[in-house]
Sequence to fold (339 residues):
Amino acid sequence: MKNINKIVLSGVQPTGGLHIGNYLGAIKNFVSMQTEYDCFFCVVDLHAITVKQDPKLLKNNTYEVVATYLASGIDPTKSVIFNQSNVSSHSELAWIFNCITRMGWLNRMTQFKDKAGKDKENASSGLFIYPNLMAADILLYKATHVPVGDDQKQHLELTRDIAQKFNRDYECDSFFPIPEPIIDKNISRIMSLKNGELKMSKSDSSDYSRISLTDSADQIEKKIKKAKTADTSMPDNNEDVSKLFEVNNLLNIFSGFSGIDKLELIEKYKGQNFSNFKNSLTEVIIEHIKPISKEIDKLMNDKAYLNQIISSGAEKASEKANVTIKEVYDIIGFVRNET
Ligand code: TYM
Fold:
């Protein structure tokens, strides 16, 4: 039974090659929340173009995120799956938030600094104001809960600040709810298989740093075999494990997929070298990824069905978004064409 006061919104960028970090850190949570919450899951194509995209690839990647949502278990009869650019009020509310957010707030965003790198002057202005669009995605649906990976935490904090400032500036107490991030402590930051201090990322130049949801069993086996561990054997306690970043990460992945508590895994593999552990980890990942990648493949060959999902999602999302944007325009004092 859904609680209509609990609304979830989250999104994934269609920038290709979704990996097990995206799955464990975000999508797996989307699936588990859909029975209890009113859920909106979008493909954030407007966010994707803050960095130059090839139009053909962007289209294909958009279909692939929709297919991944479905293949992972998001049920379109329970949740709304839609493409961000199909609902124009995301851009409209983002503009309003551009006028609410202070430059100082945006200047603190670490993801902009990471993504813009040294050549800040050459980054798009869209990349700088990206968090305002993300706040619009969330607040347009008056979402109360936002399942995300740890890297989005700061953007969520900014969203809360924007909601509070809007409510205060326009004296419309609690018009926008203050959304709660839903971040699972252990699996909210899946790290690179090559370096346990770097986040697993689509943009890492080495394919061996990540496992993609569409990797074959062979590829998964090779990647886990090559994954960095430690010169010692598996420690017998969590404190020592947490000092071995790569081992800790593999244990989190194992636990995330299998549901087995990390301490139980440490107990099972303590004192052993890592080959047994890696074989079991490979099996667990394949067991979970295989049905998903098979279904993604099938769905990618059925664009008519994917188009149907996108179109009915746009309709349902617009229905809710249009109400909020009209309320916002009234609050702000915009005169609307009523004819
Ligand atoms: P994106 O597309 O980079 O990633 C999608 C989701 O995957 C999570 N994630 C990870 N989780 C654990 N370990 C990792 N290594 C890892 N890498 C990625 C991300 O935290 C995210 O939850 N700005 C967002 C998309 C967005 C959004 C929103 C999210 C736009 N509007 C509104 C929530 C609500 C992004 O770029 O995610």
In short: The mean pLDDT is 96.
